[in-house]
Amino acid sequence: MILVSERVCCCVPVRIGVLLISIILSLVYLALFTLMFVKHDDMYLWATSIQEVDTALTDTAFNGVFAAFACVTMGYAVTSVFGIIAIVLQHRRVVRIYHVANWIFVLLILTSSLAYWIYFKVKQDVYVNDCQDLVNKMAGLPEDSPYSRVIVPHNKPIAGGNDKQYCIDLINKLVIASGVVVFVGNAIQIYFASSIGVYATSLKRHYQHQRLQDQDDDEIMARKLME
User: Fold this and answer.
1) Looking at the domain assignment, is residue 137 inside a domain?
2) Average per-residue pLDDT in the chain?
3) Measured CA distances, 17 to 54, 191, 205 (Å)
4) 196, 104 in Cβ contact below 8 A?
5) 20 to 30 A Cα–Cα from 186, which one of 56, 193, 214, 215?
6) What's the confidence (pLDDT) of residue 223?
């Protein structure tokens, strides 16, 4: 009999729910992996573009970050496919391996996404500065304008402009939106990982129960033979 705690979202049987979770994870991370390569050139231009108020990433740094994210997304997608096979076969040890591997990816994504969001939050003023610099360029602000960039000794130049409210509001919204995505997304992944753990445990209990039942059957059979 399946207990209430062995259900996903309070209503779906754990095996079906975990199978759906694995399918969703494999599709999501395969889509992210594909999207990264489709948008590679755009990300490269954004990350390595040289602005007068900020330092761009070098080609080596960009390639390193891109390769790391590509490995994580593809690795998670492959792990989820592996999990689908394990769940279909109901192989106890393979499901256990999938459970541990899934938690490794969940914790890796949790720490890295939180670190990047905290960095974004701390460097919020820098991104406002970058935004204003781009606004100035799109508006065709001349170099001799009274609102041209300001040089502060021992600091990066500050983008000019008499009203930065647009950029301040934009970056604030991006910080809030990215924070919601990071926290909600990681909460969902932790719940998914916990559900996979519940299935791995229930499969182990079922295996132990089956062994005890087989043992009882063997004892009954042995007694009948002795009579």
Assistant:
1) no
2) 79
3) 47, 12, 18
4) no
5) 56
6) 57
114, 189 in Cβ contact below 8 A?
no
Percent of the chain at pLDDT exceeding 90 = 40
Q: Is 46 inside any structural domain?
A: yes
* Structure-block tokens of residue 16: 């079906």
* C-alpha span between 106 and 98 (Å, rounded): 12
**Would you tell me how many other CB atoms lie within 10 Å of the CB of residue 135?**
18
Q: Residue 125: what residue type? A: D
What average pLDDT score do residues 49-63 get?
69
* Tokens 């995505």 -> residue: 181
Give the pLDDT of residue 78: 95
Determine the length of the chain.
227
Residue 49 CB neighbours (<10 A): 12
pTM of the model: 0.74
Query: Could you tell me which residues are beta bridge partners of residue 8?
Result: 12
Identify the domain containing residue 49 by its residue range: 4-130+163-226
Q: Is the pLDDT of residue 80 over 90?
A: yes
| E strand or H helix at 8 | strand 7-8
Closest CA to 62 of 29, 40, 33: 40
Nearest to 197 by CA among 95, 129, 116, 120: 95
Question: Per the domain annotation, does 15 fall within a domain?
Answer: yes
pLDDT of residue 196: 92
